[in-house]
Design brief:
Layout (H helix, E strand, L loop, with lengths): L3 H13 L1 H12 L4 E4 L1 H7 L7 E5 L3 H8 L3 E5 L7 E7 L6 E8 L20 H6 L9 E3 L4 E3 L4 H7 L1 E2 L5 H7 L2 H13 L2 E2 L1 H9 L9 H12 L4 H11 L25 H19 L7 H9 L4 H4 L1 E2 L5 E2 L3 H15 L4 H13 L3 H6 L4 H11 L3 H10 L6 H25 L10 H8 L5 H17 L4 H21 L1
Parallel strand pairs: 2-5, 8-9
Antiparallel strand pairs: 1-2, 1-6, 3-4, 4-5, 6-7, 10-11
């Protein structure tokens, strides 16, 4: 429940804070209006921490710059064309500075062909608020007067825990289809329901998302995954068909179940894995930023199943090599969404390796197999630990306990081998230069073959000292020469 008295008190504290007071006094002295707008107002009323300070004003960008220069340590105008000026404002008491953004009242219009608005400056705060995405983000607090402005009923929607657009949702989403993704993100972030008219508009207008750039869609997807419960937003995107427009592999997980062939609900399983991965991430790495590559891998780890499903005689169902297929599908989709190469590499590695552990659960591996597991996971080992544990969603408590104990064991063995053998380095005793010296050869393919031979020894037998490695290398090289002579 929204505690209105506490919310009003928090709004008052926000308005009275040194940074806000400094900005508000400067604009008032210059004869301009100023209001805190959007997220900070919403979060104050919800008693949520507010990290950003966004202001709106009737001042134009040149006037904003003139006003903030004396009270700031830095200014930037990369958003000048959209009326936005950024600045770092000094706290007059502590000397610390905080980043703020100040934007001229807007009255944008859209051409319906792209999501980029025709920027038009407005003349009133109420007009500016009417163009915003949701009523809970369309509230403002005038400063220094401390007057709440809420023309579209945002407070009532906060109380009802409801997301609703200030204008007709068909008009709002028609103007900017990206707002459909923002509905999913705010639903997940705030734990709010989306009102039926807004859901209906999302379903009707889902195809208009085609005018939005992949980079902007990726940005909203990332913000959704960074929430504490992205599953809520993902369900909304799937149910409205919006996710089909940019990540169709996830809705495709809702496989039809033949009456004679039964298998786990892959879609529900994937959402459970995502939620469990987030819980483990927060448990193992408290206070750190949300791990987007891990969360993407958890959501997408089984997307190879629809393409590899095979109905077997007798009612069985198999998904052979869905890990490899899924990694390929993920790479293609993430590239289309313009994800960076590091994220794509992390996600595809995790998907490709997510089944590897289950062979361990059937029987303990040799030290060599454990070393290869670590080598193949590389920098993704910590994430792979989490993903593999999260992938256990069985309701059979005995089976779940057995798998958990098996993974406890493999992590213990990795730690022991790492302590004894510097497992993280995973390099042979001799580097490429030393290999050339020992064998008396020049750089070329033979050096690579020799290096891989020594690495295989390292994986199979553990650490070798340099003298032993040299002897084994010479013997291997002699055998290579003998083999070539007999061909």
């Amino acid at each position: 429940m929204l505690n209105m008295a506490e919310g009003v008190a928090r709004l008052g504290a926000l308005a009275a804070s040194p940074i806000v007071s400094t900005v508000a006094d400067a604009f008032a002295a210059a004869g301009f209006e100023l209001a805190i707008v959007g997220g900070p107002v919403r979060d104050a009323l919800l008693a949520r921490p507010a990290n950003d300070l966004d202001f709106t004003t009737d001042a134009r960008p040149d006037d904003i710059l003139r006003i903030v220069r004396p009270i700031s340590t830095a200014q930037w105008d990369v958003g000048r064309d959209f009326g936005t000026i950024g600045a770092r404002i000094r706290d007059p008491h502590t000397g610390a500075a905080q980043q703020v953004e100040i934007t001229t009242f807007r009255a944008d219009s859209y051409d319906g062909l792209t999501r980029k608005p025709t920027v038009e400056f407005g003349d009133s705060l109420e007009g500016d608020l009417a163009r915003r995405d949701f009523t809970v983000n369309a509230m403002a607090l005038r400063v220094p007067a401390r007057t709440l402005v809420d023309p579209s009923g945002g407070v009532e929607d906060l109380v009802a825990r409801r997301l609703r657009t200030p204008a007709d949702p068909a008009v709002s989403f028609g103007d900017d289809p990206l707002r459909m993704l923002r509905a999913a993100r705010f639903s997940a972030q705030l734990g709010f329901d989306v009102d039926p008219a807004t859901v209906a508009a999302m379903t009707e207008l889902r195809d208009t998302l085609s005018i939005v750039s992949p980079e902007r869609i990726q940005g909203e997807l990332v913000k959704l995954l960074q929430t504490d419960d992205p599953v809520r937003g993902i369900r909304l995107l799937v149910e409205t068909g919006v996710l089909d427009r940019f990540l169709p592999e996830v809705p495709a997980l809702r496989l039809e179940v033949d009456e004679h062939h039964h298998h786990k609900d892959v879609y529900e399983h994937s959402l459970t894995v995502l939620r469990q991965a987030i819980d483990l991430e927060q448990l193992r790495f408290p206070g750190t930023a949300p791990d987007v590559p891990l969360r993407l891998a958890a959501l997408l780890h089984d997307i190879g199943k629809p393409a590899t499903r095979k109905l077997e005689p007798g009612g069985g169902v198999t998904f052979h090599h869905h890990d490899v297929k899924g990694a390929r599908l993920a790479r293609k989709r993430l590239q289309a969404l313009r994800f960076d190469s590091d994220t794509i590499a992390s996600v595809t590695t995790l998907i490709e390796l997510h089944l590897r552990f289950f062979g361990y659960a059937e029987g303990a591996w040799t030290d060599s197999a454990v070393r290869r597991y670590v080598r193949d996971a590389g920098a993704e080992l910590s994430r792979l630990h989490i993903l593999t544990r999260a992938d256990v969603t069985t309701r059979n408590k005995r089976k779940a306990a057995r798998l958990a104990a098996a993974y406890d064991d493999i992590e213990r063995r990795i730690d022991e081998l790492a302590a004894a053998e510097e497992l993280g380095a995973m390099r042979p005793a001799l580097d490429g230069n030393r290999i050339q010296e020992v064998l008396g050869i020049r750089p070329g393919p033979e050096v690579g073959k020799a290096y891989r031979y020594l690495l295989d020894l390292r994986l199979d037998e553990g650490m070798l000292d340099e003298a032993d490695a040299e002897a084994r290398l010479r013997a291997w090289w002699a055998a290579q020469g003998a083999a070539a002579a007999t061909e």
